[in-house]
Amino acid sequence: MNLYLYASFGNFNEIPAGGGQTSARRLKKTLERLGIVVLPINRHRPQSSTRLLRIFELYWAGIIDIVLLVKNLLFGDRKDTAFLFIGYSGSMLPLEFTIGSISKMLGYKTIYFLKGGGSDVIYKKEKSLYKCLFRTVLKFCTIVLTEGEVIENFIRVVSSKSKTFYLPNYTENGFAPDVYPRKPEDQIGIVYLGRICQEKNILLSVEIFERLCMRFHNIQLTIIGNGDSGYEEKVEEKIKQSYYSKHIRREGKINHEKLKELLRTQHIFLFPSNEPREGHSNALNEAMSWGLVPVVSSNNFLPSIVGDKSLVAQGFEPEEYVRIIAHLIENRELLEEKSRHMYERVKMNFTQSVVEERLKTELVKLFE
Hints:
alpha/beta
């Protein structure tokens, strides 16, 4: 089986620039492990820093991508080869419509992997032309892969005849412990892991922690990651000015081995994300796989990933998060119960082995 994979991979000799490239490379490896010959077509990613130049570069990149796509697909073997393209809808929909149309017209089985969250919200806000384009893309695809159950259900509503498959993010084999990791009892560790940017609400996380410190003395906050320099400076300044700065630990981007050692000692993953396109967070997966209890916003896929309404805060008022976390700290047996449940939830649903086995079954049907 052969499969053209159109996605933003970046330079394979360099560290991936962002979650999109990381996800694309991971999907490529997944497909190769399943015995599929992957023929990558690299989508150009705008590099300009100014908005106007990025828009100009985006249009030119789209034209170049279409030319390269036609060149690759025109002489391919349609019988044993499919075409999979990663898309996000929204502003990218016209390009995705064009790419999908070319694949369909050239006779390929066409797979649309709709990544990230928010596609349903965008669809509701857009006008008739956008909605028509979106439904058309869905209809001419052999199958639509989605990263979240919310989007899969949405697609079934707007295009009832479209075949869908839920392909969640997963933790790679070897990352999570084989047995449940017992947590320290003398201190409660709260952690944020991921990109340091305004959409992830890091400043709110610090404020939530400060309010918790007024009630509990045996807690520590660890913030891990790099990101937007301007926002990162604001976070550093807030930590520096905090009365509880001695209880806040700051780490940059760390390797997997160090991350595993750190997660072993942590209890709660704080994630009040307000990212409009928040997808299936890799950081959330990794934290849950080590038995951390996530306390998250109700944004996009987060509630369905966590699967526990009592851990989902409605809105972004600090006291709502404080209430949930305080209840866990005050009830240690409940905290351990939910910790074990999160560890098992990832093990059963969001590991590499589980997800790849499900995907393999679906792809066998596709190539029959």
